[in-house]
Amino acid sequence: MKHLCLAVALFLWGSGCLFLSSSGLTFRQTDFSPLQKNHAPPSPLLRRTVEYTLTAMASIDPEEVVTLGGRTLTVRDLFETLTAFRTALDTVPDDRSWAQRLREDFDLYEIPEEVYFTGYYEPLLPGSLIPTVRFHYPLYRRPPERREKSFGMSGTVPSEKSPYYTREEIDSRHVLDGRGLELVWLDDPVERFFLHIQGAGSIRLPGGRIFRVQYDGSNDRPYRSIGRLLVQEGKLALEDASLPGIKAYLRRHPEEQEKIMNADERYVFFKTAEGGARGVLDIPLTPYHSLATDPRVLPTGSLLYYVTRFPVLDSSGTVSGWREEAHFAVSQDVGEAIAGPLRADVYFGEGEAAAARAGWMMAPGRVYVLIRKGGRRKHRP
């Protein structure tokens, strides 16, 4: 699910401009005291996250070299780290043993500066496989002249960029009409725009069947933050430039929607998908345990532990407070706005509740990386 971030900061500052990659930033080894707030073994959902990642990594050359926080590792190192973690999940009998097992089996590294967290989700929208009076805003397949890009452990496999039609040319001038590229039709241009930002979603068809779509390339145009645009033009106050705030403005001013959305030239193409949301290497995503990171810094398959504040919402969907939480996670996804070691994006899941939390998510926090200690050990259950 190659996506753009939702939260205030990314709408305001755009791709990679809030925190740029810190050249030469090296992760430092630390003790396990940061994990003391979370003694208990993680939930079964995390084991599933690890298993999904190991299955995807099994097809990757184990000697492929990756860089993690200034260290040179191989895919084998990441694979063996996750394998050891899975074994610990399966065999540790109690909370005290869990904390001890982590100290015995892993080295812990800290990103030495605060990391900025945002959130993303998979929307569930009404749609139709045929155009109707209600459903007439298409999602497009990738045109055949646009080459498919592949993803590796450290990000997109390099290829020559060739900018394609802009959002205005595609959505307002309809330059792709008549080519049979329409995949599905939606009933709301605003939701279509934000689906492009998410990079994947579920479409509920008439009759109730769910039709899933996911990212299949872009027009290679730069992303522009419409939140930042609205603030610069004095149309939104900074504190109102959340996902709900931006959507509300667009709905209050339908006459401005097209111009505002076309200011972001970047355009995403889609393909059908099976099952739920998936990250790079087709890894299924799990809420709170799947993170999007910059794979040049935290390659796909990195085992992570993070601490940050999550929004607490009242019945109206407004933030009523913030709660600190700590989770183990795996780097499983990427995003256009996730650049450098000081950015991370938390996957919140599917539907309205996930959208509400993801839309408000923006908070500083800490990220730690677990790497299996050298040598093989035998463990007692």
Topology:
Layout: H1 8-13, E1 28-30, H2 44-57, E2 65-68, E3 71-74, H3 75-91, H4 95-105, E4 106-110, E5 115-122, E6 124-128, E7 137-140, E8 151-152, E9 155-156, H5 167-172, E10 182-186, H6 189-198, E11 200-204, E12 210-218, H7 226-232, H8 243-252, H9 254-262, E13 268-273, E14 290-292, E15 303-313, E16 319-333, E17 343-350, H10 352-360, E18 362-372
Parallel strand pairs: 5-17, 6-11, 14-16
Antiparallel strand pairs: 1-4, 2-3, 4-18, 5-18, 6-10, 7-10, 8-9, 11-12, 12-13, 14-17, 15-16, 15-18
Brief summary:
With about 375 residues, this protein is an alpha+beta fold. Helices cover about 25% and strands about 30% of the residues.
Any overview of this molecule?
- The chain is of the alpha+beta class.
- The chain has ten helices and 18 strands.
- It has helices at 8-13, 44-57, 75-91, 95-105, 167-172, 189-198, 226-232, 243-252, 254-262, 352-360; strands spanning 28-30, 65-68, 71-74, 106-110, 115-122, 124-128, 137-140, 151-152, 155-156, 182-186, 200-204, 210-218, 268-273, 290-292, 303-313, 319-333, 343-350, 362-372.
- A six-stranded mixed beta barrel has the order 5-17-14-16-15-18.
- α2 (44-57) runs antiparallel to α3 (75-91) and α3 packs antiparallel against α4.
- The relative contact order is 0.24.
CATH topology of the largest domain: Barwin-like endoglucanases
- Supply the CATH architecture of the largest domain: Beta Barrel
CATH class of the largest domain equals: Mainly Beta
Low-pLDDT sequence parts: 5-23, 375-381
User: Major sheet: size, sense and barrel closure?
Assistant: 6 strands, mixed, barrel
Mean pLDDT across all residues, rounded?
Answer: 86
Can you tell me the overall shape? globular
- Percent of residues in beta strands? 25-35%
Alpha-beta classification: alpha+beta
